[in-house]
Amino acid sequence: MRISRQECGVCKHESVQGMYLMSMWLCKDCERAIVELEIEDASYQWYVEQLRKSKMNLLLTH
Ligand SMILES: [Zn+2]
């Protein structure tokens, strides 16, 4: 069975393990990072920004 790799919408790395968040693929590393980061953390803001951008892209393609 062929395992399909998905490109993470945040870090752009291809990964087999992960989850869909707002119809965007999120790799295990980014999923964990978002869960563990504090809202005050600059990295958290960066992740949120990536998610926001990807959602905008989805809206534009429809
Ligand atoms: Zn990622």
Automatic annotation (TrEMBL):
Q: Which Pfam families match?
A: Gin
- Which keywords does UniProt give here? Ribonucleoprotein, Ribosomal protein
Q: Which domain of life is it from?
A: Bacteria
Cellular component GO terms, alphabetically? ribosome
Q: What is this protein called?
A: Ribosomal protein L37AE/L43A
